Description:
This protein has helices at residues 2-30, 151-155, and strands at residues 33-37, 44-53, 57-68, 76-80, 84-86, 107-110, 119-123, 135-141, 146-149, 164-166, 171-178, 182-191, 194-204, 212-221, 224-233. It is mostly beta strands. A hairpin with a 4-residue loop joins strand 10 and strand 11 (171-178). The longest helix has 29 residues, at 2-30.
Amino acid sequence: MGKARRNDASAAVTMKSALLIILITATSITAQKTFELKNASKYFDVKVRVAKCDDEYCSGHATFSFYKKGSSTPYQVIDLPDTQIQLKSGGKPLVNDTLLYDEQSVIDIGDYNFDGMEDVAICSGSNGSYGMPSYNIYLSSRAAGKFVYDPALSRLGRHLGMFTVDKKNKTLETFDKSGCCWHITERYKVVNSRPVKVFEEVEDATDPNSSRTKITTKTLVSGRWKTSVRYEKIQR
């Protein structure tokens, strides 16, 4: 009888310990977390408060508070129902760092309409192609004194991660794919803060009976599209 009671007591302790571990783990995963981003811009700092984190990612409801350097009061707060934050070593978010299929920042700072002012791209969750991060684009407005959401540019942030910016040629470029063997690159000029597509290139290797990739290039020249097709041998 005494041994049975000791076994029951031991089992109860073990169960309580297991429940405690589960509770602690669940709490650590779902706990709200705040990050202060001091190096995103030379003009402002950003404080990010996000709903839940684990060791590698944060996600869920988030607020992005913007502070002028040296100020303790935010001049703008952007609220999003979802975000995705990839954490680097040390548990800090990636900022201004985008590598296709690899690293995607929670915030990217850049001049997306080429007017000389800093704009901001904020990760709005995993709504891009293949579950990649998607981005809302907010343009800096002197008239409004804050960042203003831009739906047209935000649509460019819903491909395979954040679009790339060519400062020299003042173009934006997106990349997308379907499966292993169909890829598309699209390039945009920004006219009056609106993206206008000027280039498209499709690499198509979906024909199982062909040993070549079909590459179709379209370029906008004087308001008219010019199309060319070439073939390249598939490297096995």
